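Recall that a protein's primary structure is simply its ordered list of amino acids. Everything else, from secondary elements to tertiary packing, is in principle encoded there. The following example makes that idea concrete.
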Amino acid sequence: ELGKRAPRWIRDNEVTMCMKCKEPFNALTRRRHHCRACGHVVCWKCSDYKAHLEYDGNKLNKVCKDCYHVIIGCTDSEEKKKKGILEIESAEVSGNSVICSFLQYMEKSKPWQKAWCVIPKQEALVLYMYGAPQDVRALATIPLLGYTVDDTPRSADLPHSFKLTQSKSVHSFAADNEELKQKWLRVIHLAVKGETPESQNELQVN
């Protein structure tokens, strides 16, 4: 269907980095562009291709490198490198997750920042953090096994917050409301013990 019908455009505020080369966007050097074939948000370097698109009367349109190769029928000789642990796309894991939502995140004495947090079904013991729901690369991952959970906020913390600690490593999170916080805690309490929601259900059935 590529080029035959108009794509769904990913909104600018759904990404913090180019969806092709993964370079972060910033106000000065990284203007956002949309590929007219797939609708992904890309930087100027990755949108520097043009192809005739059927849905637009076969006019020349700006497209990303990947769509350009597909539309003109040329295969990219570069073998796709094996994805590193952070290279997993957010949409890929969010669509098949145990839980995912925005949480506020704080590490050490840095200020709170908003992060799209996901615990994938395939890796139910790992928490992935993205800048936005459509980002193609995680900012960080936390293997939850062995962490201690502290769900009592201090006075300086946000109201619906909880902490994960392991030796000198401390990660603070805060949900928008108590209900969301409890949903996360149910999953995390299992993960730190090496259990998943499925294995817990099996135990209850047995």
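The domain at 1-80 is CATH 3.30.40.10 (Herpes Virus-1). The CA atoms of residues 70 and 81 lie 18 Å apart.
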